[in-house]
Amino acid sequence: MVFNSLLFLAFFAIVLGVHSLPIPWRARKFNLLVASYLFYAAWNPPFVLLIWLSTIVDWWAAKWIERSDDARRRRAFLILSLCTNLGLLAFFKYGGFLLDNFVVLLGSLGIEYRPASFNLVLPVGISFYTFQTLSYTIDVYRGKLRTSKSFLDYALYVTFFPQLVAGPIVRASTFLPQCIGEKRGTRSQIAWGFTLLTIGLFQKVVLADALLAPTADLIFANAYDTSFQDAWLGTLAFSAQIFYDFAGYSTCAIGAAMCLGFVLPDNFRFPYAAIGFSDFWRRWHISLSEWLRDYLYIPLGGNRTSAVRVHVNLLITMLLGGLWHGAAWRFVAWGGLHGIYLIVERILVARFSRFVSLESTAVRVCLALVTYGLVCLTWVFFRATDFASAWAMLRAMTIGSDANLIVGTSAVLSVGAVTLFLLATHWWLRDSSLEQKWGRLGLAGQVIVLLVMLVSLALVHGDQRAFIYFQF
Amino acid sequence: MRSSTSSSSDRIPDLRLGRVWVVVLGLITAGFVAWEVVLRATGFPPEVSPTAWSIARARAAEGVPVIVGSSRIQAALDLDAWVEARGGPTPAQLAMAGGPALPMLEDLAEDDRVDGFVLVDALAFHTFDASGNSGASVPQRMAEYDRFERSPATRLETFLRVGVSSLMAWRSPAAAPSAVWASLRRGEGLPVAPQSALRRDRFRPIDFVSSLEGRDWTPEDGFMVGEDMRFAREFGEAATAAGVAAIIERLEAAAQRIRTRGGDVVFLTMPACGPRLAIEEDRYPRAAYWDRLAEGVSFRTLNAADEPELVGFSCYDGSHLDRADAAVFTKRLVDLLFSNG
Question: How many domains does chain A have?
Fold first, then answer.
């Protein structure tokens, strides 16, 4: 089930209605849990079993870790959790990729091997909920978290439908305490929650799907025969599309949770106004960045080691972060490019920061635009279907090509307008908050903005596209 | 860093959004009700979402009569009249604009649950089109049906979308903002109400009579002249003799699979007239296409031109029947199919 569907509207109305009934808190949590399983099962019922497996294994692994004083036993249970969750990921998400690369490796050694085809359906959201349950067990192992006393609370933490399939990746320490006290959305939360749902849906349905996706799809489908202008237009279109698609999902998730009285962490903070790449990763997919930082980068040694080792740690983290997004080398390349950006930035900052003042708005704008431009380049690997087409796009973007233009003026205008709107709003909101700016709009301004978004949502005719991050 | 895009702080500032939402919902409701009233007053009917094909396809697997083919049979068969004449369940109307029969028939043949009566509109210029121009939307509809079958959520969503679109004229593509904007830019005011709209049962009645009101029209006065070039392009490339044989073989094989499950298939070609018929005859001569099909399949074939009961209807655009004739045509066809067959 996706947020941009009539089915979700009906489903959410029922869930919210039951959640608002004067029934015991435990019954309301049970309602949310059942609703969450239905939400997931609506896509592919058998894969609910995988969530149950992950939930049960981590519930018991964490309990046993907490109860045991024996370091080896504790480590064994941690390994059980890691193997279960990463095993699920490896099998369902990376199975085909690993097999393909194994065949290539054997081929390079002169051994011909033709395995049976490995066509598994990727369970939607598996990368998100496995990371979530893993963080619970690891935090318990590290002594940073007490295990939950209620299986119902824990199962709801793993399965909570607003963020189940595409994040934000919520930590148990953030969610579980919210299950203890009785919760129901206040009037302010419900009103703001629906406002966020509207903003999220507008980002997804109108900006990403209706205005940007057709141009990005057309140009990337013709990557081998793309002109300089089209290549840039397609890349800019996709850069904006991926933001509005994913941030739209996160905003909907946070808004839906808020209507139910739950608070989820932010996942985006106007990333295209970032000044530098460290800043970018503090603003883009924050819950994943923080997960990788806490459970991968810091255990590798983080910043508290030699400069070379810090660079290696950064690169490993970003390469694996890239691989998390998809089982293909182009995602690894995307992560690798970001790793290189971060390393180069560290070197430049160490050597030249005293010569550059970030107080000047002009300098900040220039650095933000450079960051944006370089981030856009990485999206080519993310969106292209393979390396060859990614190179073809990059070639057209740098040395140009004599291909004819394939998109019309209206596409240029819509992508240009949305990109300008995106950059302007990100810069405008960069050091502020949405609530703050929203509050300053006044009654008339708020009514107009909501009207524009809702009318656009109602009138947009088009395919109902899934969110891009569902595939991860 | 402060919370921003989604602002999940549980200390939500009191933005007094309650009254904002009351105003917004009031305005939205009033606006859309007014827009609906204006559209209905100017003759806009609600038009069912194209995803209704999935619902019809699912019904095809329930043993009801099935109709496949192009817009001609979709516009000509009034399914209420079919039920009145024949009794039993409403047929599953799978025909679609530009739809060649072959991929649809093969899809039905693949499905073991399809074991009833299948009426195939085997229009030559779609069936024997070698250019791939015909049936551009068939793969999309089939992909939608695949998701409809596999995902309970998609199934429910389709029913909801079809239900909503069958009630609201403002959801019609003809009333979409782009259509309204284009019409306003041309200085024509609101767009003209569409000549036809897909009904919930996928019958697409076409109202030629109203749109020709006040015009001194005869089929020979060149009504189709402006359309001829577009129509000629639609034809694409006709299959070669070998290609025709291969297509007939595939039609026969698919129909045989349905027959082995207890079903029956009838191949039909719908009436045409005027300049359009002349173009069809020129590009797809009957002897080289339809007659070969009739000889090459072991199933009943019906050419409307040979059946006195099925000729003589007003043929406004040379290709489709008017909605006023659909019920009569349907009853006559049902009689022909089930009384004489």
Answer: 2
Residue identified by tokens 């979402």 is B49
Quote the CA–CA distance of A199 and A255 in Å, as a whole number. Answer: 9
Put simply, whether B27 touches A (Cβ < 8 Å) is yes
Given an 8 Å threshold on Cβ–Cβ distance, is B5 in contact with A270?
Answer: yes
Q: What is the DSSP string of A59-110?
A: HHHHHHHHH---HHHHHHHHHHHHHHHHHHHHHHTTHHHHHHHHHHHHHHTT
B142 CA to chain A: closest CA distance, Å? 14
Let me know whether A303 and A405 are in one domain.
Answer: yes
| Catalytic residue IDs of A | 325
Instruction: Give chain B positions within 8 Å (CB) of A431.
Output: 2
* Euclidean distance between CA atoms B283 and B228, whole angstroms: 13
Does residue A138 sit in the same domain as residue A259?
Answer: no
Is there a domain that residue A12 lies in? no
Boundary residue ending a domain (A149, A166, A183) = A183
Helices (H), A293-433: 298-300, 307-325, 329-352, 361-383, 387-398, 409-429
The tens place of each residue's pLDDT in chain B, 341 residues long, gives: 333 334 445 456 666 788 889 999 999 999 999 999 988 888 888 888 888 999 999 999 998 999 999 889 999 999 999 999 998 899 999 999 887 888 999 999 999 999 999 999 998 888 888 776 666 778 888 888 988 888 888 899 899 988 888 888 888 888 888 888 888 888 878 787 778 888 889 999 888 877 666 666 665 554 454 555 555 656 667 888 888 899 999 999 999 999 999 999 999 999 888 777 888 888 888 999 999 999 999 999 999 889 888 888 877 777 888 888 999 999 999 999 988 54
The parent domain of residue A359 ranges over 189-471
Domains annotated for chain B, with CATH where assigned, are 52-339 (3.40.50)
B153 near A CB under 8 A? yes
A2 occurs within a structural domain: no
Q: Is B8 on the interface with A (CB under 8 A)?
A: yes
How many angstroms separate the CA of residue A429 from the nearest CA in chain B?
Answer: 8
Q: Which residue of A has its CA nearest to B173?
A: A461
Residue B193, CB-side half-sphere exposure with 13 Å CA sphere = 19
Distance from CA of B157 to the nearest CA of A (A): 5
For A189, the closest chain B residue by CA position comes to B12
